[in-house]
Design goal:
This protein is an alpha+beta fold. The chain has a single domain, classed as Nuclear Transport Factor 2, Chain: A (Roll), CATH 3.10.450. A hairpin with a 2-residue loop joins β1 and β2. α1 packs antiparallel against α2.
Length: 125
């Protein structure tokens, strides 16, 4: 059963905001701070299935166009959070490089705070 208390809500929302800003501003260091280094990412889009480690994701962010400097509108929001104790799933909607994504971020509370330990995504684009 999901924990309905909202004690951790602000901390989770802050982590998600860091995720959004890291992607929008191309800030790899911000992203590195909120992800577990062992994180893997899995996804689906019109080109097929994808699976890669965090380093591959950070390389993509570092080498791609930066939405903020490309004048792309900021269009990212938290859809929902489901939390049970020190683990949670955050569903977020993200516009990145003019593509729309639904991301599912698996979160774990650690001694250093909440971290993203897994990401699964879908884009129809």
């Amino acid at each position: 059963m999901a924990d309905s208390t909202n004690v951790e809500g602000p901390a989770i929302e802050a982590l998600v905001q860091d995720y959004f800003l890291g992607m929008y501003e191309g800030d790899v260091e911000r992203l590195r701070r909120i992800f577990n280094p062992q994180c893997w990412l899995f996804g689906e889009n019109r080109r097929g299935s994808h699976e890669f480690p965090l380093s591959g994701f950070l390389d993509q962010i570092a080498s791609g166009p930066v939405p903020k400097t490309e004048d792309e509108p900021f269009d990212m929001h938290l859809v929902s959070v489901d939390r049970s104790g020190p683990v949670a799933i955050a569903k977020v909607a993200v516009r990145y490089q003019n593509r729309h994504f639904t991301d599912y971020l698996t979160l774990q509370k650690t001694a250093a705070g909440w971290r993203i330990v897994n990401k699964a995504f879908f884009s129809p684009d």
